[in-house]
Amino acid sequence: MTSSNGDLGDGYYLTVEQENENADAVFMGISRLYEGDPAPSAPFTELLNIENGEPLGQGGMKRLLPWEGSKSASSSDFMIVVTDPRPKSVELRTAMKRLIGALSADLLAKCVVINTDTPAENRRFVKKNFSEDSGADYMTVLTDEKMDWMREYTALGEKRFSITMFILKEGRCEKIAREVEAEGMTETVKNAIRTMLR
User: Fold this and answer.
1) CB of 142 within 8 A of CB of 47?
2) Which of 19, 23, 33, 11 is nearest to 174 (CA)?
3) Which of 197, 177, 198 has the alpha carbon at shortest distance from 8?
4) pTM of this prediction?
5) Rounded-to-integer distance, Cα 24 and Cα 193, Å
6) 8-state DSSP, 98
7) Is 122 helix (H, G, I), strand (E, B) or coil?
8) pLDDT digits 0-9 by tens, 154-173
9) Sequence-distant (≥ 6) Cβ neighbours of residue 183 within 8 angstroms
10) pLDDT for 94-127, tens place per residue?
11) What whole-number distance in Å separates Cα of residue 198 and Cα of residue 185?
C-alpha cells in the first residue's frame, strides 16, 4: 500500500486511494466527518455494553470519553475507535486479533471496537477467540445494532460497508481512515498515533 507521501511502512496511515477518496468527497461536498471536525459525545450514550446489553447512558459515556471527564484518563488523552457495520464481520474480527496481538496494554485500553452484532454475539466471539491473558480484556467492545453511532460519525461508507478507524482527542476527530483492510489495521493505527503525537 503506497501513499502519495510514502507507504504504511514509512509511517503514513492513509493509502493513495484513501487520500484520493477524501479529496473527492471534499470536492463533491459529501457530508461526512473530516479530520478536525467535532467528535459528538451524545451518540456514545446509546451504544450497548456487551456485558449486560444495556446502553452506556450519560454516566457510561462520561467514563469512556476522556474529554467528558473520564476518571481513568486525562482530558487531553485520545481514544482509538474501530468500527464496521457488517454483521459478524470476518474482517473486523481479524483486525481485532491483529490489534490485540500487536498493541501494548496501554494502547489497547484506549481502543474501542463498535460493531452491529448483538451483545451476546460479541461476548461469544471474545470468549471463544481470546484467552484471559491475551489482552482482549483491555479493549472495549460496544454494540451499535441500529447503526445510529455509525450514521452520526459517517462510518457507513458512501459505496460499501467497511472498517473505519477514528482517533478522537479532546472532542475532535484527530485522524480518520476509511475502508481500512484488516491486514493493514495495526500499521494504520500505529502510524496515525505517531503522526498525531508529532
Assistant:
1) yes
2) 33
3) 177
4) 0.83
5) 25
6) H
7) helix
8) 898 767 899 999 999 999 99
9) 94, 98
10) 999 999 999 999 999 999 999 999 999 999 999 9
11) 20
